[in-house]
Specification:
mainly alpha; two-stranded antiparallel ribbon; 36 helices; 4 strands
Length: 659
């Protein structure tokens, strides 16, 4: 089995962690009689030799031995070996890896009839990906569908047919015919669901008009046929990456994959997807509902729609006596902010019944606000206020409480006394004070609590301490927003400090003395530090015509080929100073069109411009008509993306006078 393995110069090869000398041991471990050793060896191969999908010289050297292991009928867990080969030669395979796997692809054809179910499940997909003989591949798939009796393998064959149609469009008609046959009786509900999902993805013109009701009915039939509750995937008993991934799989992984495929195929057909979610969430089967909850997140964060009904049904899961389902529901609701309002009753009931969930203690790191309470706060539900008050009065105050309270805005004013007390209790010289104080200050500013000026001025006494820049800037911003007259001497004293820009911006808000702040703000226009520049430009814009001397510098930035956000900031400040609408529009239009994630601040500026924004209202109208969220881009997903998109929509409506 390992003939020639010792003749390979593994020591000269590399993997993610250095020398590949340990690779022969990992390969031999895959043939061990001990399941734990096999899993550990597989974990080592994924973690080092194929780290995060990378391919090294040692990865390529493993391929012939992995094929030998996959062909050895006496060995268990060979399906995992086939999966590893598929990953090595995968869709984005690097260098010679795809060719190396294709060179052995004949084996995948034989493995489709292997006696090991796990091998038969993984072989069809590998066959479609790597055997470059489309007609023969289709014949093999057709033959296996005819003789296969294991439902799990039949599902894999169905998925492989869908993959085949996408990879070989010239031969797709025959594969689509096979899928059509599988989508009707006498095939069972699970296989029919799988076939419908593949048809929706590769032949949408062939799917039935009543696709969603059919899918919901088949899902219910599938659930009724299960003679026992779904259980976690077998294996995963070791503390390895592979083991942990197996434990994280859905309790009904097959059902999750079936419906995920259908949702992905429906894509922008949001009305159908909502109806499908409602059907899943109304299922008597908990696993179906849990799968639906997890699937809802991708829909919510990508497409704009009326989600009140599915959100209410997700909220209904919070009362279930099932930790997995309840936690899934909370995770789905937490990023929705105001859109989670239909689930507020369920969140409030959970928060009331489970005080131990108010604060989450981490093994490492500061405590945070518990997810159910966070979701209730983000709803804007007033019932969260008494609970937050109790948390603030407790011995442990989560580090993120102030950030979440700030989102309540003026509604958080009843919490102001407790927030002030907490702010006033912080030790001035403690290293953790800035991280604790800044969220509290943001919450007090959002609540409009000018009575916090005394506690805020106290924080400025440590202005010269290292690591306190952000704290001093936030404190100055807070005093400026409250127009605190008692802060004037302190702010004037900071005009000769490293915090001069923040102090000048706040001082203008308090006493409107342009002569005191202009020299500082104009000097900051050449500051290399982006935060100081933005603070200065924002303040200069608020000065209006008094900041006329800033125009040349702002014009240069706005018209230069620099970062779009910086150009737009300069252009808007320039407009506030000289009222040159055409020059402002000439910058804001291309920035809006080219940078979706900059649209939210731009929409706020357009609202402030009032009638002067009229020539750009076509951009706003187009945004409101767009079905996809502006945050649904390829650069990842952040927890506030949905809230930011909804805020953009609200701003756009205000620009058009629709709210």
């Amino acid at each position: 089995m390992f003939t020639g393995i010792d003749e390979v110069d593994w020591a000269s090869m590399r993997h993610a962690y250095g020398s590949a000398e340990d690779v022969p041991g990992l390969l031999r471990g895959l043939a061990s009689a001990d399941p734990a050793e096999r899993e550990s060896s597989l974990d080592g191969l994924y973690g080092a030799v194929h780290h995060q999908g990378d391919v090294y010289d040692s990865t390529l050297a493993c391929v012939p031995f992995l094929f030998t292991l996959a062909a050895a009928e006496e060995l268990p867990d060979r399906g995992a070996v086939v999966e590893l080969l598929v990953s090595i030669g995968g869709e984005a395979g690097a260098g010679d890896a795809p060719a190396a796997v294709r060179a052995g692809a004949e084996l995948f054809g034989r493995l489709t009839g292997d006696r090991d179910v796990g091998v038969r499940r993984t072989a069809p997909g590998a066959l479609v990906r790597f055997l470059d003989e489309p007609a023969r591949v289709l014949d093999l798939l057709r033959e296996r569908i005819t003789v296969e009796r294991d439902d799990r393998v039949l599902l894999a064959l169905t998925e492989s047919l869908g993959l085949y149609t996408r990879r070989h469009p010239a031969h797709a008609d025959a594969a689509v015919d096979l899928l059509m046959a599988q989508s009707t009786p006498p095939y069972g509900p699970e296989l029919r669901l799988a076939a419908l999902g593949q048809l929706a993805a590769c032949a949408p013109d062939r799917i039935p008009a009543d696709l969603v009701p059919t899918a919901v009915r088949l899902l219910q039939e599938r659930s009724e046929r299960r003679d026992r509750p779904p259980v976690a995937c077998a294996g995963g008993h070791t503390d390895t990456l592979v083991g942990r991934l197996r434990r994280l799989r859905p309790s009904d992984e097959a059902g999750s994959q079936l419906l995920r495929t259908l949702h992905q195929a429906l894509d922008s057909r949001v009305t159908d997807r909502i109806a499908l979610l409602v059907g899943q969430l109304s299922s008597p089967d908990r696993a179906d509902r849990c799968n639906a909850v997890w699937m809802s997140s991708g829909l919510f964060r990508t497409w704009r729609a009326d989600y009140r009904r599915p959100v209410a049904l997700i909220g209904a899961q919070l009362g279930e006596d099932d930790d997995r389902l309840r936690e899934a529901a909370v995770s789905a609701l937490k990023p929705l902010f105001a859109l989670a309002a239909p689930a507020a009753d369920g969140l409030h009931a959970l928060v009331t019944a489970r005080p131990e969930l108010w604060v989450r203690q981490w093994e490492h790191g500061a405590p945070s606000l518990g997810d159910p309470l966070t979701a209730l706060v983000r709803c804007g539900d007033a019932r969260a206020l008494p609970v937050l008050g109790e948390v603030l009065a407790g011995a442990v105050v989560p580090h993120d409480l102030g950030h979440e309270v700030a989102g309540l805005g003026a509604a958080a004013l009843p919490l102001a006394p407790a927030l002030r007390r907490r702010l006033g209790s912080l030790a001035l010289d403690a290293p953790g004070t800035p991280a604790r104080a800044i969220p509290l200050l943001r919450a007090l500013v959002a609540a409009g609590d000018s009575d916090a000026a005394a506690e805020t001025l106290r924080l400025l006494r440590g202005a010269g301490a290292p690591g306190r820049d952000l704290l001093v800037e936030q404190a100055a911003r807070a005093l400026g927003s409250w127009r605190s007259a008692e802060a004037v001497p302190v702010l004037r004293g900071l005009l000769d400090s490293p915090h001069a820009v923040a102090a000048a911006a706040a001082l203008w808000s308090v006493e409107r003395d342009a002569s005191a702040v202009l020299p500082v703000l104009l000097g900051a226009l050449t500051a290399p530090e982006a935060r100081q520049w933005e603070t200065a430009v924002g303040a200069l814009g608020r000065l209006g015509p008094r900041a006329h001397d800033a125009l040349p510098a702002l014009r240069r930035v706005a018209e230069a080929a620099g970062p779009p956000g910086r150009r737009a900031t300069a252009a808007y400040a320039r407009w506030r100073i000289d009222g040159d609408t055409d020059a402002c529009h000439a910058v804001l239009r291309p920035v809006w069109e080219g940078g979706p994630r900059l649209r939210r601040p731009l929409a706020g500026w357009l609202r402030a411009m009032g009638p002067a924004a009229a020539p750009l209202r076509d951009l706003v109208a187009a945004e409101l008509a767009a079905p996809k969220r502006h945050t649904a881009t390829s650069d990842g997903y952040a927890s506030h993306d949905i809230a930011h998109d909804e805020e953009l929509l609200d701003l756009c409506r205000e620009v058009l006078g629709e709210s």
